[in-house]
Amino acid sequence: MTDPILRVNNLKVAFPNHRVFENLNFSLHKGEFLSVVGENGVGKTTLIRTILQQLKPAAGNVQFFPNRKAVTFGYVPQFRNIDEEYPLSIRDFISLNLSGIKLPWLSRKERQQVDQIIAQTNLQRIQNRPLGMASGGEKQKAYLAQALVEQPNLLILDESTASLDNVMKYELLDLVKHFNQVTQLSVIFVTHDLPLAQKYADNFLLLRPTSFKYGPIGELSEADVKEVSDV
Ligand SMILES: Nc1ncnc2c1ncn2[C@@H]1O[C@H](COP(=O)(O)OP(=O)(O)OP(=O)(O)O)[C@@H](O)[C@H]1O
Fold first, then answer.
1. Is residue 46 lining ligand 1, measured as CB closer than 6 Å?
2. Ligand 1 and 209: CB distance under 6 A
3. Ligand 1 close to Cβ of residue 141 (< 6 A)
4. Which of 5, 64, 211, 225 has the most crowded Cβ, counting Cβ within 10 A?
5. What is the pTM of this model?
6. Could you give the ipTM of this predicted complex?
7. What's the CATH class of domain 1-71+153-230?
8. Residue range 178-190, pLDDT digits in tens
C-alpha cells in the first residue's frame, strides 16, 4: 500500500443544536480513489469542508502527510452559478486557478500549464468559447481542468456528475480515473450514484446518521446500495 496523504482521527463536527458525525476514522492514501456515499443530509459536504479546513472540528482532527503544506487540493464544488452571461472563456476560467496569476499576462510556463490541462481534458476545440455558453458536460470538464491546472495531489469532487447524462458521467470519470492512475492523484468523490462509485473507486466511505462504514468498494453490500439508493 502507498503512503497515507491524510488521516481522519476520531472526527466530530457539530453545528449549533446539531451533531453531524462523531468518532469518524479513515485514511486516504496516495493514488487512492475514495467514494463518499450516504443519504441526503448525512454530512458528506460537511466532511469535505472539514478536510478543506473551512470548518473546525468539535473533536478529533484531520492529519496531513508528510505535512499540511505537502498536500495540495483541487476542488470541484457541488454547485456553481454560471449563467449564459458569464464573461470568461473556458481557457480564462481554467487560468483563474493559477497562483500568482495576472490575467491576461500569463508567463510562458503558465501558458504551457493551461495548454497541457486543456489538451488532457479534451477542451482544445472549445477553449475560447464563453464558459456560460458551454453545455453541462463541457462546464464540468472545465471545472475539472481548473481544479487540476496547478497539479494538486488531492482532487475532491462533490457530486460533480449529478446533473450529467450517463455518457457524460462516464466520460468525466474516465478522465478523473486517468489522472488518478497516471499521476497517482488521490481522489475523494462524493456521489449518490452507486454504479459510478463501484466502477471507479478503490474504497468507499458510507456515512450513516450515527455510524459509518469504510472498506474496499467490492465490500459495499446489496443492503448498503439499497440504503443509499432509497433516498
Ligand atoms: N452551516 C450550517 N449550519 C447549520 N447546519 C448545517 C450547516 N451546514 C450543513 N448543515 C446541516 O448539516 C447536515 C449535513 O449537511 P451536508 O450538506 O454535509 O449533508 P450531505 O450529506 O452533503 O447532503 P446532500 O447529499 O443532500 O448534499 C444537514 O442536516 C445540514 O442541514
1. yes
2. no
3. no
4. 5
5. 0.93
6. 0.96
7. alpha beta
8. 999 999 999 999 9
